[in-house]
Amino acid sequence: xxxxxxxxxxxxxxxxxxxxxxxxxxxxxxxxxxxxxxxxxxxxxxxxxxxxxxxxxxxxxxxxxxxxxxxxxxxxxxxxxxxxxxxxxxxxxxxxxxxxxxxxxxxxxxxxxxxxxxxxxxxxxxxxxxxxxxxxxxxxxxxxxxxxxxxxxxxxxxxxxxxxxxxxxxxxxxxxxxxxxxxxxxxxxxxxxxxxxxxxxxxxxxxxxxxxxxxxxxxxxxxxxxxxxxxxxxxxxxxxxxxxxxxxxxxxxxxxxxxxxxxxxxxxxxxxxxxxxxxxxxxxxxxxxxxxxxxxxxxxxxxxxxxxxxxxxxxxxxxxxxxxxxxxxxxxxxxxxxxxx
Amino acid sequence: xxxxxxxxxxxxxxxxxxxxxxxxxxxxxxxxxxxxxxxxxxxxxxxxxxxxxxxxxxxxxxxxxxxxxxxxxxxxxxxxxxxxxxxxxxxxxxxxxxxxxxxxxxxxxxxxxxxxxxxxxxxxxxxxxxxxxxxxxxxxxxxxxxxxxxxxxxxxxxxxxxxxxxxxxxxxxxxxxxxxxxxxxxxxxxxxxxxxxxxxxxxxxxxxxxxxxxxxxxxxxxxxxxxxxxxxxxxxxxxxxxxxxxxxxxxxxxxxxxxxxxxxxxxxxxxxxxxxxxxxxxxxxxxxxxxxxxxxxxxxxxxxxx
Lengths: 341, 306
Description:
- The complex is a heterodimer of chains A (about 350) and B (about 300).
- Chain A is mainly α.
- Chain A has helices spanning about 5-15, 35-65, 85-90, 95-100, 105-125, 125-135, 140-155, 160-170, 175-185, 200-225, 225-235, 240-265, 270-280, 285, 290-295, 305-330; strands at about 75, 90.
- Chain A folds into 2 domains: about 5-15 and about 25-90, no CATH class; about 95-330, MetI-like (MetI-like fold).
- Helix content of chain A is about 70%, strand content about 0%.
- A two-stranded antiparallel sheet of chain A has the order 1-2.
- The radius of gyration of chain A is 27 Å and the shape is globular.
- The model of chain A is unreliable at about 1-25 (pLDDT under 50).
- By secondary structure, chain B is mainly α.
- The longest helix of chain B has 30 residues, at about 85-115.
- Classes of the chains: A mainly alpha (about 350), B mainly alpha (about 300).
- The interface between A and B is large, with 107 and 102 residues.
- Chain B: Its main location: membrane.
- Chain B: It is found in: Cell membrane.
């Protein structure tokens, strides 16, 4: 390839900095032809920088994703001296694990629990950061607002072990609430072990941990709304609530739609550690969700193929949901999680 | 990325715009109660736990468990914990995991973010897709467990350090910042003969201090908080990180194990439990205010570019 053509290519590149269709169509099959050796010499440092991350993802993300094929095996960890050996020696059984899975009432129970908790949190948790952000935004004193933000962001950085420990200390059987009720001569209730109210408990925990953090995106969106709109509306006689309805909420719409779609795409995940930590205290009936099911029926019991099948099923549905949600986002004219740029 | 706070010249109090109607007392009252409760819901438990951890046996017995109003300070719970034993060891493990992990993860992430910030470089599209795909497809639990154990990492801190050493979210945040650096700056460095490594270390990194602080905090917190990976990969008690110990004391009902102290002289169980909570929270509460003002920027870059 001649250098002259390379320069022409470079020149034509400059005319379309955004990567849109070139004004002069290129001849088919003649993409840029800077020789590989030249590009390697130019970019080898960039490639070297990418290498460590590449290797880590290869080993700890892509290799496990390929390892999903044990869902189609009767995987026996004791067959070989290491997992790879065991994998090679295990029998292939096709969709046998999936047939077992779909006939397992415990699996469908976990499935229903997961969907119920997602739906419950969508109604009772999802709107709260929006409301809180609007409330924070309306505070005049920036110092007070900064203080409140500092405090409510904090629990986001607590581990779930810590969050559940806080709740046990406050609301558990030996906690402050029970202690106060006993002193007042009342029968103490222990919400930490009550399966009937468990769905409320996990939602309250999730709110406590992340409601403040969730406001960040909405606060940023609020600050981009043109203040003149409010003034003009007020001059036209729109009251506080009408301004909220006709200016603030439409201004937040793109962010709300985006986050709603993301949440729907992730409908089968409801905070794994949170449930695993409380599963024993509350019982499987209420606290078994898909993620804990996968854990308990694979690693905890040694039935790896079965757990892998459940995990693969969940991942496949999750991927479909994400792609579908993103499609809907594009159809609504929103950006979605990724765009085709 | 404007801050959410409209900057007023110092000294002037923020004022309500003239066109806005004066707030109704009911609305003001509701807002005060709501924000007050929210702030209290975070600060009050912290207070109770801190006070209980510093209370003597008599105070705790008198209060019936948890102490709200302090009566004197008794640090014996902390002395017992730091005298050696499970908690001291776990703190050491967690500190190592956090320090090594954060250093490694920051290095890997910054390098990859810079390597992926130049759209015309060799293999750019493929590499970018390769790095972003794990955002959509999580590594499945069972095969991941088999990979980590198969590599012989079980019961070593590397099982906790290596797998999360690159997070796609943090990568996107750092890369977004790098791409916002004016191209002229990088071009001039190149004309002066700087290699990519030199450009990164001499020009880009000094500009990126804030974003690196935020991403570093994210990594440090996630390493400090590691619990489930330890449940999976760490079977030996003496390799437990702090979250595992906290769980076994507070949630699994295991009695705090203190090395050989006679039970009569031992501080009360409640105080020890709460002291473990405080020790687990302390690093987060200590570091967080310094970095908090950069959050909005970091999170928003991720939200927009992601």
